[in-house]
Design a protein that fits this description.
The chain is α+β, with helices and mostly antiparallel strands. A four-stranded antiparallel beta sheet has the order 1-2-3-4.
Length: 92
């Protein structure tokens, strides 16, 4: 299976520290990550280079959702964050 890379660049009207925290703080990330009709539960969040994370997005009401796991590859506060993920089974 080939490897794929997706690079997304955005300019946000917010202080850099606030954006960094939204991506790197477990509680902040859980508040906004995923579609609006889903809740995000983060089971593991080892935020360091080489650290792993594991999260599940569940439809509100506890119905089916999706799970993904990944690794933080680069952590250069506050300028560069690189992480990878892999989708796992649907849950629920």
């Amino acid at each position: 299976m080939p490897d794929y890379t997706l690079k997304i660049t955005r300019t946000l009207q917010a202080p850099r520290e606030q954006v960094w925290n939204a991506w790197t703080n477990k509680e902040e990330l859980a508040n906004w990550f995923g579609p609006e009709d889903m809740d995000t539960v983060i089971d593991e969040f080892d935020f360091r280079e080489g650290g792993a994370y594991d999260l599940t997005m569940m439809k509100k009401g506890g119905e089916t959702g999706s799970r993904l796991k990944g690794t933080f590859l680069t952590n250069k506060k506050p300028k560069k964050l690189v992480w990878m993920w892999k989708w796992y089974e649907s849950v629920g």
